[in-house]
Amino acid sequence: MAPILKIIANNKKIEEYFLLLSLITVFILPWFFKFLGFLNLNLSHLFNAFYEKMDIKIALGFTGFFILGHYLKNKTFNPIIRKTIYFLGLISWICVIILTHFKSFHSNYADTFFYNDLSLFTLIEAIAVYIFISHKFKNYKSKYSPLIIKISNLTFGVYLIHILIRQFLQDSFGIDSYTLGVGWSIPVLSIVTFTISLFLSYAIYKIPYANRFVI
User: Fold this and answer.
1) Rounded to an integer, what distance in angstroms lies between the CA atom of residue 131 and that of residue 148?
2) Residues 80 and 24 occupy one common structural domain
3) 84 and 119, same structural domain?
4) Which domain holds residue 50?
5) For residue 62, which of 130, 116, 16, 132 has the smallest C-alpha distance?
6) Does position 215 have pLDDT exceeding 70, yes or no?
7) Which string of DSSP letters, residue by residue, matches 100-114?
8) Does residue 1 have a pLDDT over 90?
9) 136-181 pLDDT, tens per residue?
10) HSE (CB half, 13 Å, CA atoms) of 13?
């Protein structure tokens, strides 16, 4: 998939069309279906079933983050726009807490709609964090810089592999976000998953020619 995405990323106009299509179909449409549920629950279920069967999020959701990262890396933002994005990221974080609380309380179950991987709030928060870190540490240098650069070169491989590692840990050992309680399981599982994915990514990187197409 990486070679195909590189073709998209190398053409700015196509890249912007791809991001716009991803924004509308993956991050905005689900909100429309959610709102539709308040007006007509049966119609909302019908649209949701049709949407899920299309698996749009596979082609335009997670790959959209990959293209977005490339787009933001080559985009320059003035201080006003940066601060506006930071503010929107903070507001999104607050909205997630409030809306999730009220929706879960109203539905009588834990509703993850507002903070799932492809939520509009998650997208805004990810953009804010990415721009903040890339701007704040743009000229960062230390004795650990070579190591950080090596790890960063492997992170795309980690991104591709990590979901498989999570699934493996859950299926083979029953380890998930609730094994030790959410407070402990999420950070521990994140560290373990990242570490395993990093080593596998490094192993693939060392295979001749494989790194050109996978990492």
Assistant:
1) 18
2) yes
3) yes
4) 2-136
5) 116
6) no
7) HHHHHHHHTS---TT
8) no
9) 888 778 888 888 888 888 888 888 888 899 889 988 888 877 777 7
10) 0
